[in-house]
Amino acid sequence: MSIHTDVFVIGAGPAGLTAAYALSKHTPAVVVIEKDPVRVGGISRTVRHGDYLFDIGGHRFFSKSKEVVDLWNEILPDDFIERPRLSRIFYDGKFYSYPLNAMEALRNLGIKESVACVLSYLEARAKPIAEPATFHDWVRNQFGERLFSIFFKTYTEKVWGMSCDEISADWAAQRIKGLDLRVAVTDALARSLGIKPKAKAGEPVVKTLIETFRYPRKGPGMMWEAAAEKIRARGAQVLLGRDLRSLTYDENLELWNIEVATASGEIERYTSWHVISSAPLAELVNKIRPRPISLFHARSLRYRDFLTVALTIDKPTPFPDNWIYIHDPSVKVGRVQNFTSWSPEMAPPGKSCLGLEYFCFEGDGLWATSDEALIALATAEVEKIGLVTAADVSGGCVVRQPKAYPVYDEDYREHVATVRRDLALGYPNLHLVGRNGMHKYNNQDHAMMTALLTVENILAGEDLYDVWMVNEDAEYHEAGRAGLRAALGSERQVPKKVSDAA
Predict the structure, then answer these.
(1) Are residues 354 and 307 in the same domain?
(2) Euclidean distance between the first and the last CA atom of the chain, given in angstroms as a whole number
(3) How many other CB atoms are there within 10 angstroms of residue 76's CB atom?
(4) Number of H helices, E strands in the chain
(5) What percent of the chain has pLDDT over 70?
(6) What is the structure's pLDDT at 171?
(7) DSSP for 446-467?
(8) Long-range CB contacts (< 8 A, 24+ apart) of 377-386?
(9) How far apart are CA 501 and CA 26, in angstroms?
(10) Confidence of residue 492 (pLDDT cuts 50, 70, 90)
């Protein structure tokens, strides 16, 4: 026997829960499934190890979208703290402030190397690569070949496990949007002189250079646990320990038949008018029956995985940074999170917690290394970098995160476009949202916006918005919703296949 619901949501990360939260204001006929048997939040969850808390990566709560900020405040009104943003780069045995401090960078690099970097930048601006196709091309155009080789190449290849000449320029354009050497140096000089740079009226804020951010006092998991509680309070369901087995579209009844496996192996069956998926695109397509013709393209999409080694430290916060990028090739760690600088409540008083992030592929040597060996490796490397001594480390734990980052290789765009066309033509009311659901390296706020706009499309009964434009045009989701409200009018028209129980 099948249970019917109006909207079925796959994945209880930021995108999936945002969609369910917005929909549950209009109907309780919403079901969310999540593979994790314990926690919601996906990669934005917070993990507890004894009396210590840590994130899977760090998650700043900063957005140019008023709708997203308002939603954060609505879900978690009393638990945000304002935190100073402080990060550094560790390269060649030295620390560099990030954003740059001009005098410090000059001192660390030396005058000769600094002049060479500036000349390299000027050459790149005078003779840019006309159509940058790779990450290497894009960064070379923005910063020059010299700075690319010093600050970008090693770290990026550590993160992705592939050459910068194999990574699409799309990734750089999204992650370093609005920043080039001129912007960075102007900002760095102002900081060196004690001047706080201000954007001119109408100019977008470069996220890379923001100085403060908001953060839930006990980690981002607070946000998504609160969202799940409020969704359930409205009568909708958030079910943990559920794994999608199959999706089949019934053309005669115009609805989806869905099979789900519970953690104990039982099979649950659902029908739904709409399906919203934030599951990895390759996994979703593999579960559709009959198999889509684009299955080969979906299976060709690649993902980068990573693991966090959380070290508990028997002393207060050992350094002020929120996180440090480790560009130095002499160690395997890619980034170090200092969770008590994110929030003092992430560790007991007088203690601290560091998260060392190692980028890998699921099943490779690093991924398969035992927890004990990984904790020993992290302890040795954090001492080698000079952040704490091995004697300061009292313990640790390891969390492996598969499919953390969709890979932007040279073929990903063609694969995604082919899958999109196939699903749009043959599978009505299947909506893709979020980072993995769209195979698009979105931030948390972008993932949430794809969900919000998808909900608006469902409620309107038509595709008023192309959610794929989110994070393609930086201003898309700022101006767009006002136009959407104007199109809908003051009364939202709910399509006949979505109940209005509000």
Answers:
(1) yes
(2) 27
(3) 21
(4) 18, 19
(5) 86
(6) 78
(7) HHHHHHHHHHHHHHHTS----G
(8) 377/309, 377/332, 378/309, 378/311, 378/333, 379/311, 381/331, 381/332, 381/333, 381/356, 382/311, 382/333, 382/336, 382/354, 382/356, 384/330, 384/331, 385/90, 385/324, 385/326, 385/328, 385/331, 385/333, 385/336
(9) 6
(10) very low
What is the rounded distance in angstroms from the CA atom of residue 413 to the CA atom of residue 440?
10
User: Of 40-49, 178-187, 260-269, 320-329, which range is least confident?
Assistant: 178-187
DSSP letters for 405-453: EE--BTTHHHHHHHHHHHHHHH-TTEEE-STTTTT----HHHHHHHHHH
**Across 172-226, where does the E strand assignment appear?**
212-216
Is 181 a residue whose pLDDT tops 60?
no
Residue 210 has pLDDT above 70, yes or no: no
Do the beta carbons of residue 234 and residue 28 sit within 8 Å?
yes
Peptide bond into 290 cis (omega under 30): yes
Q: What is the pLDDT of residue 500?
A: 41
| Structural domain count of the chain | 3
Task: Tell which residue, 306, 319, 307, 309, has the closest CA to residue 389.
Answer: 319
Torsion of CA 218, 221, 227, 232, to 10 degrees: -110
Q: What residue numbers bound the domain in which 414 lies?
A: 3-44+64-76+219-300+410-488
CB of 230 closer than 8 Å to CB of 22: no
Tokens of 325: 């990028």
Residue carrying the six token digits 């519970």 = 262
Residue 498 counted as domain residue: no
User: In this structure, are residues 200 and 71 in contact, taking their beta carbons and an 8 Å threshold?
Assistant: no
Do 107 and 203 lie in a common domain? Answer: yes
- What average pLDDT does the segment 108-118 reach? 89
Domain CATH code at residue 292 = 3.50.50.60
Angle separating helix axes 221-233 and 14-23, nearest 10 degrees: 30
